[in-house]
């Protein structure tokens, strides 16, 4: 009987090598494991076998049945996989799969403002510079008329990396770098204009309108005959482009270490047209930035001759402009990546 079982196994292996389809494999399986199969007849005849042979024949028969079933199942699985792979290779798009809607992103409100400012000033000949996140104490303070020990440094709430290096507290450090570079340039003809946009860092998160990190715009325009009239025109031009043609500006005397004379700049409330509302705190005006004519001392500290050239400058927070422009009440909304909040700006850039 054992020889007969081994013969069935050898014949199965031989026949399986000739099988090409799943149907043929299933037919072979049935012929070997069915009720009328030769292997079943062997199991039925066990009752007539000698006691010493029953165990060996039973074990061998069971192992052969298991081997045949597992081998054919493996063969069928391989054939199915090959058929699927061939189908996937021939059908680049499976039209039977469930379709999914494409999700389109939106422009971030800060990027919208940065792009608008960039366009506004490049149209009138300004260069656009990227501000540094990390700056030296020299360019961040000393070259801007804030020497070591100056009390105005305390207003910046600066993050120091070491004694000589800080996280930029304002984008005005780019003004110092540009002025210093122009002073060294033998080919500088005395006229240059740029805006610098970058991240700035201060320990300032007391309320919903402040954050320890925000973006800032800093403008510099240097020339032989730059006056306060030029500053007023630039401020008015930018404000009308950002907030609408009906907007007016108001200049209030102020004090900054970088500029002299200096002014705070307000725009007439674009929501209530100056009548008074919650946005402008019922004053009719909204403060947006500080500006002025570059201090003569700053010009000298950066190697420029204030008798030959003068310059105007102003600095504004990108977040503040965005909050006013879009009616955003909490600055943290700009950083939380809330999809529902960001989807409100789909209509921009279309």
Automatic annotation (TrEMBL):
Keywords: Aminoacyl-tRNA synthetase, ATP-binding, Cytoplasm, Ligase, Magnesium, Metal-binding, Nucleotide-binding, Protein biosynthesis. Its cofactor is Mg(2+). Residues 21-88 form the Phenylalanine-tRNA ligase class II N-terminal domain. The keyword Cytoplasm applies. InterPro entries: aa-tRNA-synth_II/BPL/LPL, Phe-tRNA-synth_IIc_asu, Phe-tRNA_ligase_II_N, Phe_tRNA_ligase_alpha1_bac, Phenylalanyl-tRNA_Synthase, tRNA-bd_arm. Mg(2+) binds at residue 260. Residues 92-345 form the Phenylalanyl-tRNA synthetase domain. One of its GO terms (cellular component) is cytoplasm. Its EC number is 6.1.1.20. Belongs to the class-II aminoacyl-tRNA synthetase family. Phe-tRNA synthetase alpha subunit type 1 subfamily. This is Phenylalanine--tRNA ligase alpha subunit. It comes from Mesoplasma florum.
């Amino acid at each position: 009987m054992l020889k007969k079982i081994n013969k069935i196994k050898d014949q199965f292996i031989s026949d399986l090598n000739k099988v090409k389809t799943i149907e043929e494999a299933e037919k072979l399986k049935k012929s070997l494991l069915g009720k009328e199969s030769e292997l079943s007849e062997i199991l039925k005849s066990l009752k007539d076998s000698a006691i010493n042979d029953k165990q060996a024949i039973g074990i061998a028969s069971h192992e052969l049945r298991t081997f045949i079933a597992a081998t054919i199942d493996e063969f069928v699985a391989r054939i199915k996989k090959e058929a699927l792979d061939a189908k996937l290779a021939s059908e680049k798009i499976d039209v039977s799969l469930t379709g999914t809607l494409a999700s389109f992103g939106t422009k971030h409100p800060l990027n919208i403002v940065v792009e608008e400012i960039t366009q506004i000033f490049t149209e009138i000949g300004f260069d656009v510079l990227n501000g540094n996140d990390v700056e030296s104490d020299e360019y961040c303070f000393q070259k801007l008329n804030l020497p070591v020990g100056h009390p105005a440094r305390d207003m910046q709430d600066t993050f120091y990396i070491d004694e000589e290096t800080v996280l930029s507290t304002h984008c005005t450090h780019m003004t110092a770098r540009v002025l210093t570079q122009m002073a060294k340039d033998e080919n500088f003809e005395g006229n240059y204009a740029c805006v610098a946009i970058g991240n700035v860092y201060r320990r300032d998160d007391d309320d919903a309108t402040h954050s320890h990190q925000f973006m800032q715009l800093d403008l510099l325009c240097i020339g032989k005959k730059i006056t306060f009239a030029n500053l007023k025109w630039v401020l008015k031009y930018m404000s009308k482009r950002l907030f609408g043609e009906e907007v007016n500006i108001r200049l209030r005397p102020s004090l900054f270490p970088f500029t002299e004379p200096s002014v705070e700049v307000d725009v007439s409330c674009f929501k209530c047209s100056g009548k008074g509302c919650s946005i402008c705190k019922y004053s009719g005006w909204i403060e947006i930035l500080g500006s002025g004519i570059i201090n003569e001392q700053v010009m000298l500290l950066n190697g420029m001759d204030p008798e030959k050239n003068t310059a105007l400058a102003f600095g504004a927070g990108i977040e503040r402009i965005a909050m006013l422009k879009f009616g955003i009440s909490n600055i943290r909304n700009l950083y939380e990546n809330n999809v529902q909040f960001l989807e409100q700006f789909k209509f921009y850039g279309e």
